[in-house]
Amino acid sequence: MFSTVKSIARLATNKLHLPNVARCLSSKAVSRQHPSYQDTVQQTYGQPVPRTHPHLLKSDELVTGIKLDEFQRRRSRFMEKIAKTGYETPLEANPHIVIIPAASKVYMSDHIPYVFRQNTDFFYFTGCQEPDSILVMTVKGDKRSAILFMRYKDSHAELWDGPRTGVDEAQSMFGVEETLPIGDFEHFVLSYMTEHKKAIIWYDKEEVIQTKIHNKLNEIVKLSHRQSFNCPKTLVHQLRLIKSPSEIELMKKTCEIASKAIAKTMEVSVPGMSEHELFATVDYQCRMKGAEFLAYPPVVAGGKNATIIHYIANNQIVQDKEMILMDAGCEYRGYTSDITRTWPINGTFTREQRILYEIVLDVQKILIDKLKDMPSLDMIYNEMCHLLGVRLQEELLIPKDLNGSKLLAAAYAYCPHHVSHYLGMDVHDTSKISRSIRVQPGMVVTVEPGIYVDPKNTMAPREFHNLGIRIEDDVLVQENAPLILSSSCPKEVAEIESLAKMNQSK
Ligand SMILES: [Mn+2]
After folding, report:
1. How far is the CA of 364 from the centre of ligand 1 (A)?
2. DSSP class per residue in 107-126
3. How many angstroms is it from 280 CA to the middle of ligand 1?
4. Spatial distance between the Cα atoms of 175 and 169, rounded to a whole number of angstroms
5. Region for 476 from its dihedrals, namely left if φ exceeds 0, alpha if ψ lies in -120 to 50, beta otherwise
6. What is the C-alpha separation between 250 and 218, in angstroms, rounded?
7. How far is the CA of 251 from the centre of ligand 1 (A)?
8. Beta strand 96-101 with 134-140: parallel, antiparallel or unpaired?
9. Which keywords does UniProt give here (predicted)?
10. Which 3 state secondary structure label does DSSP give 200?
11. Residue 484 pLDDT exceeds 60
């Protein structure tokens, strides 16, 4: 990917191109802010800021779509929650220290990193994109404090890996009470624990994010009065579960990008194409519309591959008369979409494909509509099994004499996955939140029923064998009616047939 020699060459080239940088900076968008040339060259940050990346952020945003005060509000709401826990006596509040590490770089092989993705909870509270940082929040009575531990600026490391924000700039940039160098972390925690012997330490010991920090914390906690950690994750996820107005805007955007990308993929698809090409198309379309990357390895499954729920090999040719099931979503500024569409590669459903497709579509629409009654996701799942069961009985894919739990079990044989999960900064968002609680306005959930006909399924007539269909939309729960965020991706039979027909004659 890169080598010493090439990097040196690149540095030399960059120097030669400095006048070009200056020319670019005089473009309209930047010149409005009148940056001094010297200033731009000298002060760099570990992530885009409005001055260096005016095409990505508005002048008052810390990250695209979100201002600094929202991050501060998230931290103070969280610390409020923490302050309400852990009273030893009704009058004596415990001090608390919460530790949330940033992600570290992960390597696929020697010196070759995977694309960096920040630890979600850390990003939610800071907007900080730098690896190996740590957020510490302390709560003692009415006193609240957020401390960010950052890497020093390091000209040598920055030549290789790009700029760092550094300790000094970070305080005003991220609006925390204090910033300290990462090397001071251990000492800070030790002295805090010495000073506050009864402090509760909040740290997720199950998920090792920074190994060094994890090991140090384990040593520290053993010496402490507590000798164990409290996990902060559930409290964090309770906050993340309800999206703020700015988060809703970002969710709309990420869903719209992926919706249009999948629609475009339908439009170019044609028999004989490989799943790989369709994967490349959706990936390309998402990036060209501004997404950072796909939110997960997409399922691009032609024909019978669609019956494998987590099929991601994506290396087969899609044949005439087969359907393609595409489950893809993207990440836009830290927010994810998760959409599935199934369409006939030649633009026309066969009789059997259409029968099953219409069942899934009808059931999906009913389930989305149910969200107005604020059910739990588990209730929606039970409803799906019931509706699928009845509809499959009508089409003779389930024996007519089954009812009750036997009918539900028969439906389960056609759809072995849950119908919904929470969606947000993570694809399977807020995993600590049970699916048995009722949904509330501000939550975003998926609705994704499917039918998969395994030839081993003895109830299924032969002509339905190996068909796999799923339709998945991303839905914002609102007070009155749910809002489908992925509505710009067509799902009606006539719409997807006409889209999929567009490239057939070429
Ligand atoms: Mn999903």
Report:
1. 13
2. EEETTEEPPP---HHHHHHH
3. 20
4. 10
5. beta
6. 37
7. 14
8. antiparallel
9. Hydrolase, Manganese, Metal-binding
10. strand
11. yes
User: Vertex 315, ends 359 and 111: CA angle to 5°?
Assistant: 125
* Residue 494: CB atoms within 10 Å: 8
Q: What is the DSSP secondary structure assignment for residue 100, as one 8-state letter?
A: E
Place of tokens 């309800």: 242
Measure the CA–CA gap between 332 and 289, rounded to whole angstroms: 10
- Cα distances from 164 to residues 11, 46, 157, in angstroms, run 17, 4, 9
Closest CA to 422 of 288, 270, 292, 243: 243
Q: What is the pLDDT of residues 397-428, one digit of tens each?
A: 999 999 999 999 999 999 999 999 999 999 99
CB atoms closer than 10 angstroms to residue 405:
9
Q: Separation of 504 CA from ligand 1 center, angstroms?
A: 30
- Distance in angstroms (rounded) separating the CA atoms of residues 315 and 273: 10
CA of 474 to the centre of ligand 1 (A): 8
Average pLDDT, the chain: 91
How far, in Å, from the CA of 446 to the mean position of ligand 1? 6
pLDDT over 70 at 5, yes or no: no
Cβ–Cβ under 8 Å, residues 422 and 433? yes
Distance 369 CA to ligand 1 centre (A): 18
| Rounded distance between C-alpha atoms, residue 240 and residue 384, angstroms | 27
Per the DSSP assignment, residues forming a β-bridge with 146 are 137
pTM for this prediction:
0.90
